Amino acid sequence: MRDDAFVRFTAHEIPREDLHALMPRSDGPALRRAVWHLGMLILTGTVLWRLRSTAWALPLVVVQGYMLAFIFCALHETAHRTAFRTRWLNPVLGTLAGLLGFWPYRNYRVYHWDHHRFTQDQERDPELYFPKPASLPMYLFVLTGIPNAIRRIGDILRLASGRADRPWMAPSEQRPLIVEARAYLAVYVAVVAASMLAGSLIALLVWIVPWMLGQTFLRPYLLAEHTACSFTRDCLENTRTTLTLPLVRLFAWNMPYHAEHHAYPAVPFHALPRLHERVQGKIENLEPGYVAASVKVARYLFGQKAASLHRAVD
């Protein structure tokens, strides 16, 4: 598996010199973004713990949940190893983000590698391996974070038990993935043990519960990336870009510019707004916000289910 760019398929090219101007890596933007994201988590978590018995606890746990859920985007960026120019910083931040989000870093890298290779390929894209919610009740259940928690923890336990048999797990990766999962599991067991010995609920209140609640924001964001897009190899057609607020882009590490990222994955996250200016007219799925994107996704998911039921009756 290559370390940097992953792969892309797009029929639209921009001049080589313009693309090269967007590709240089730098430690500064990622360090600033990481300090902001992790710093806000620490600050909000501290305030939440101190005000846990007051009326401020509920809004604070929602804010903490949003930021915790979107630490996934730091995992994503460092998985590409384009976030930092200094190579070792990528797995350091990626491992921390993976621990917070229950998705081991190397495990996510091999999964995401195949996602970029086979985007919207119904037989080989890992993101299509598990079915998407096909009804409103299932969609609302997904928003609770329960299915995601079961899958994330289940995957770690599956790997820790020695089963590395998903289609995207190459034989050469299986042993490292198993070792990684066991290391992550050891950390989680240590946190549970320390919490029980100390008689403290801080990890539950500041980390686990907010992370679960944060899925209400993260799941629609992730579903918007490719759902209801074309099943083609062209990344400006099979991926959606969603225009949104600067604060959302800040915690999402600019990944709402998702079609741009898939078309040119070697371009670092901090250069995606400039890349967007170059290719926005060529993006097939460009939405004005996440409400509009979620409506389109829901119509596709639920309409698809209704259509299949109608065909079965006929």
SSE map:
Elements: H1 16-22, H2 27-50, H3 57-69, H4 72-80, H5 89-101, H6 105-117, H7 136-143, H8 146-160, H9 171-198, H10 202-226, E1 240-242, H11 246-251, H12 258-263, H13 272-279, E2 285-287, H14 290-313
Parallel strand pairs: 1-2
Helix pairs in contact: 2-3, 2-10, 3-10, 4-5, 4-6, 6-9, 8-9, 10-14
Describe the structure.
This protein has helices at 16-22, 27-50, 57-69, 72-80, 89-101, 105-117, 136-143, 146-160, 171-198, 202-226, 246-251, 258-263, 272-279, 290-313; strands spanning 240-242, 285-287. It has 314 residues and is mostly helical. Strands 1-2 form a two-stranded parallel ribbon. Helix 3 crosses helix 10, helix 6 (105-117) packs across helix 9 (171-198) and helix 8 (146-160) crosses helix 9 (171-198). The longest helix has 28 residues, at 171-198. The N and C termini lie far apart (47 Å). The model is unreliable at 306-314 (pLDDT under 50).
